[in-house]
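Input (UTP--glucose-1-phosphate uridylyltransferase):
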Amino acid sequence: MSATRIKAVIPAAGLGTRFLPATKAMPKEMLPVVDKPAIQYVVEEAAAAGIEDVLIILGRNKNNISNHFDSVPELETVLENKGDHEKLGRVRRSTELADIHFVRQGEPKGLGHAVWRARAHVGDSSFAVLLGDDLIDERDELLTTMLEAHERTGLTVVALMEVDPESIHMYGAAAIEPTEDAGIVKVTGLVEKPKKEDAPSNYAIIGRYVLPPKVFDILERTPPGKGGEIQLTDALQELAVTDGVLGVVFRGRRYDTGDRVDYIKAIVQIAADRDDLGPDVRPWLKEFAAQL
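Output:
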């Protein structure tokens, strides 16, 4: 199955309470990472992997997200009349990335429920799920590798990353076995946000998945789990037992924007690496660090 036939689903219905009061009126997915909202990086990643159809799952007061991906004729006209074609191109880029659709989750019942809400749009095809808290550096390959592994095997594929064991309680943790393919493991079990002593490994699920359509039937009968929410990890655990789940181990650059400190780190890292900003940011960063 080619990437052009696979649809991407981006859950964006969370309340973003860790970023209050900034997220009181602005969705956390619209918080800027340098000069683009976090969610645009995620849509760009899907588009770069060849995915042309993107569904964003919205919650209440998330209209800013749909507005961002709409065209703004009055702004475009002003920029065109000024001859500011560079900014005009950046404004239009978000509209031209993909065919973007929206559906509301209604109630915040967890990630599993948000994914289930994509059922009518996705239909009977496999699909990718990309979480907006995890930004993957565009220079590092992940989603393409996952899509290729799914196309080759037909199995569910999740992205894994080794984390400090002290941090594993913040993630879904995977029990794994090696395979013949370098960088790809077999996932034999999954636990959502386990205590350090209960974790099967320090391999954490990061926010990228390629899922078969049968996951919708599983989610429909999955009872609330950790935190009283319908957990996608619980459905993945069933798939690991019945069908098999593969994990692509990611060792590239990942920016966690779901935590305030990591969000600041992400902005600094991305700005320092950019050709247009890095020459000014890096020397300042060194001077600032020397004063600490």
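The chain has a mean pLDDT of 90.
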